[in-house]
Every structure is written in structure tokens, then in C-alpha cells.
Amino acid sequence: MRAWVVRAGENGERERAALEEGVLVVGWDRLAMGDLADAATRDDIKAAVAAAYPDEGPYTIGNWTGQLYRFVHEIQPGDLVVLPLKSLRVAIGRVTGAYEFRAGALEGMRHVRPVEWLVTDIDRQDIQSDLLDSMGSLLTVFEISRFGAAERVAAMAEGKPDPGRPDADELAASLTEPAKLYEEVRRRSPEEPLTLSIRDFLAIWGVQRRYPATTEQIKNELQARGLVTVPSFTEGTLDSRIAVLAGGAEPDKSGASAVTRLSGSLVLEAAHSIVALLGDTGGRTSSGSGSAGLGAHLPPDEEAETQAVAYRVSNLDSANRMPECVRVGDSLGTATTLMVLRGYSQLPVLDEDGRLRGVVSWESIGRARMADANAGLQTATVRGQEADGSDDLLDWIGAIQQFGYVIVRDHDHKVCGLITASDLTVQFGTRVRPFVLVEEIEQRLRRVVDRCIPLERIRATVPRGRAAQVHSAANLTFGAYKHLLKVPENWAALGWGIDQEHFLAALEECRNFRNGLMHFSPDPVTEEQLRPAQGLLELLRSLDPQI
Prior knowledge:
This protein has 22 helices and 17 strands. Helix 2 crosses helix 3 (about 60-75), helix 19 runs antiparallel to helix 21 and helix 21 (about 500-515) packs across helix 22 (about 525-545). The protein is about 40% helix and about 15% strand. It has 4 domains: about 5-155, ph1033 like fold (Roll), CATH 3.10.590; about 170-310, no CATH class; about 315-415, Roll (CBS-domain); about 425-545, no CATH class. The strands form 4 sheets. Strands 1, 2, 3, 4, 5, 6 and 7 form a 7-stranded mixed sheet that branches. It has about 550 residues and is of the alpha+beta class. About 35% of the residues are buried.
């Protein structure tokens, strides 16, 4: 049994029909005249999508193809499906049949899967944050599999509470404040360091994302206590694991620090970087993810402190998921079978130690077979694009766009992930969405204020010295709207039949959210964190739909 999320349109426009008719439904209106049941392979669906949307680029076509292929072929009867609702609740159902094309249905309502809805009113607040994060993708159709998602969704479908991730760290959950963290590190021997995920580590300070101010606060508190994290908590994904050590403790009889003993590969100079990290200059650990990152060393890089949180290749989830691959010595038939079954364009070819020896792709197979009809895997293997997890992601965007992928290796040069152009599309779509949302809120506020409130009253909101510089609401800061709309005369001018106090509170919550965005954390905004701003935007759209 697998669990999927199938959204009912960007603004939930199909959710009522989905619930009332007992179906999952996807859009892609220009495909409305084509029955995808006849599209047996990804290539068939890709051809149909490309024909229907000729102006779209190859990465968008590939992304849409993957979603439609999942909807038509990968989702199976008996699988569970989650439908996020506009009411901020969640419906869960069980798929009961195969894909259907309803030729007589309304436009945008023709591609469906029958489903039995088991529960339709789960409050998102009752779902733990890690599962909500997994459900937060901007895709219309995607699988949720991490952290025991299918079993947890099944439990909630039976009316039970979210049981939480099966590998939940009970010790981490008990570290509810920094003082308990310090005490736990102090209690442990250097041979048994405290390890936990970056997500759990941040939760000790009551935060979910690594904003610069928060990062600086945590670094200062660690420094004051003589502690260090290996790898640095500023790099890797939120699920990467780190060790928390007494970095300032005296060396043992051999002259080695706790950090050196942990990594096992440090040279003497690395000890000086620990001194730098705990002293005035500071330093940073090399990037890593998962348990493999615990062996990373601390380079003596005094300038690195200015890069409190770098956006590394390892920040992408797909960089930390071992990809499907073939091994040196496998047959070309094995490679092509996997590529067809999974819909892949290429596969890494690894040696017995897990290191990259090249890539086999449809293009490389074609070229090899042109020269030799009996060519095997070795002949069809070509050099692959390979990035280190600690590389700057921006440096690799061009290569990913050009080649469609990059293989990711860890600090031992073993393959640990694969990033495709579709991964970039989803990642940056996730990051752009909050900014677009806040921009529309600001635009709507500006327009309604300019239309309803005279300029002299707008100017009265700002200090007298700046009043002459205000020519419209566009010259106001976001925070100024709260003060402007507190004035009874200005609020009445809007003509809105809503509660002023609740609206101003929502406006203040959005202002704080906006300010947080401007600090550019490398961690994605979750649906839960986005909810207040999304709610305010929906309210503004309802109040003034013509703009």
C-alpha cells in the first residue's frame, strides 16, 4: 500500500466535485480530448503533453508527464490518497479503481480515478509537522513515503491520531530547551556523542527554519557553552544528522579533541579550526547529510563565518536519496529494463564501492548501438556530471539545465543522490510561491487603499518628515497598513463587512511572515507556515474580487 497526495486545483476549484462524486480529478484541460488510458508508457504521455502544450519547455513537459503517469499508471486500487482542502482540513480516501476518461464531463473534470472517501475533516493541526512538510509539495500528484507516511495516513483514516514517524527520536523530543541539551552533552562520554537531526536540533530553540538571526543566536549560545556541531547545523537538509560535542574540552592523553576522535580523519591542523570556531574568528564544518556527514572535518576557513547558511547541493532532498543504479558488470538489458520500468532517462553506473563510474542514458545507448549492434553496458557508459554535496547549488544549475541531471557524491566520493531538472523546478517553485503570495497581498492592499482613502489621510500615517515623499500607498511600508487601517475613518472608507480586529491581527501576522522571508532561510516554507498569509490573501480576493 502506498500513499499519495492529489490536489484539486491550485485554488481547490475541483474539491467539491471530488468529494461529492467520489473521484480524484486532475486538470490539464488541453488534454481533455485524449483518453490517457491508451498511453501505455511515459513516452506516450510525454508526446501527448508536448502536443497539447507546444510552448512549454522540456523540463515543464517532463514534470507534467511524471505527474500524469503517476495518476494514470502508478496509483493502484487500494492505495490511500490525501486531498488537502481549502478549509485547512484534509480528506483521506482509498482508491477503488483504474483511471477513467469521462468524455462528457465538464472541461477540467475528465481525467479521474474513483475513490472511497474515508474521512473528510481532519484538522491539519492534528498532523505532525514532518508529515505536513511531506504533503507540502506544489505538485498536483505526488507520493508521500518518508517517515512511515502510508501507515500514518492509514491510522488517521481510521480516526486515530497521527502516530508520528516510526523512527522518532524520543531523546530529541525530551530536549525541550537549550539547558537540557547542554546537560545531555555533558552527561555523555566522548565515545557516545549526542546525535540528532537538524530539525530536532532547531526545535530545542523553538524554531523550524534557519534564519540568520536565529542561526547567530544558536551559534553564540553553543560558543558560550563550549559546544560544536559536526557537521555544522547550518548546512544540509533539516533531516541531516549532526553530533553535538564538547568541542572546547581538554584533549585526551593522545592529544586529540573530541571532534578529531569523532571524525577519525582529521589532521593536526583541523584542531586549530575548532579553536577558531569556539573563539573570536569562527569557522564552519564541511557539508554533509545523514550519518555519513559525521565524518566530515572542519576546514580552517575563517571567512566561512560570513556565510552563516550556505545553499548547498545537499540542501535538496533528492541529493540525499540514493538513486536507482546499475553496477559495473551488469548487462545493458538490466539498465534498459530499469529505465523503462521507472521512466528514467539515465542511470548511474557504480563500482563495488559505490563510486560513480559513469552514466548510461538512452542517448549513450543509441550512440553505442550505432557503432556496434551488440554493444554492452561498458560501451554505452559515458562520463557523468558529478557534484559534491557541499558544492554551491547555484554553480550547478547550468549543468542541470543542460544535461538534465547531476549525480551527487558524499565526502567519501560515494554516490548518495541524483538531482534532476524536475527537482529544481519543484524546489524553486516552492521557494518562489511565498514571495508571489506576499506580493499579491501587498498589491491588493495598495490598490484598495489608493482607491478608497484620500492621499492626505495616507500621508498622515507616516512621520511628518516623510509625508512629502508619499505619493500613493506604494510608498508605504507593509507595517504602515496596520496603523493606517486602525483609524476608524479609514477603515469605514473600505466598506468591508468584516471584523476589524481580526483583520488587523492577520495583517500583523503576515507582516511577521514577510519579514521572515526577507531573511532568506535555506529551509523551505511549509504549508503550515504559509497558511496565515494564504488565508489573508483569500480574504482580500473575496473582499475585492475585481482586482
